[in-house]
Amino acid sequence: MDNSKCNAPKLTQYSLMIEGRLLGANQLNNYHWRKQRRHMKKIAQSFLLAAYATNGPDQPLRYSQIAIVSYRKRLLDYDNLVAGAKAYVDALMLPQAKMLRSGQIRSKPGIGWIYDDSPDHVRVTYEQIVSTAEYVEITVAQAKPW
Predict the structure, then answer these.
(1) Which of 56, 89, 118, 135 lies 20 to 30 angstroms, CA to CA, from 112?
(2) 80, 28 Cβ separation under 8 angstroms
């Protein structure tokens, strides 16, 4: 069979680079709740700025593989890295709004690259590399359903 005539769709890949160090869960847990919220908003704003400079998917990816690579001066232990990177995965999701009983609207910002962050839709891998420059590189690849 000739592979050049195969009609299989090409799987696409998108990348973002976010300046700054990925904070571990231990450091985030020691923050006051207001400082934690400011940190999450700062991450979401960084994602929005980076997403405008990058061509992302037209529609959210239902199934995706995400690779988060943290470049930092000192390495974290693995569970600290995973918990600290949760905000980065959340920022990739569709924006969500929720109406409270009081009539207020709470929203979770996101850039809309992935449909959901549940294990049914996303597989995430984490890696750390020792570097003098501190930043986070995120790669989102379209995946086949599992």
Answers:
(1) 135
(2) no
Distance between CA 90 and CA 44 in Å, rounded? 9
β-bridge mates for residue 137, sequence order: 17, 69
Q: Which residue(s) pair with 71 in the sheet?
A: 129, 135
Question: Sign of the C-alpha dihedral, residues 136, 129, 37, 63?
Answer: positive
What is the mean predicted confidence (pLDDT) over 38-65?
A: 87
pLDDT digits (tens, 9 = 90+) for 86-122: 989 989 998 877 778 888 877 777 888 999 899 999 9
The domain spans of the chain are: 13-142
Considering the segment(s) 13-142 as one domain, its CATH architecture is 2-Layer Sandwich (3.30)
Among left, alpha and beta (phi > 0; psi -120 to 50; other), residue 67 is beta
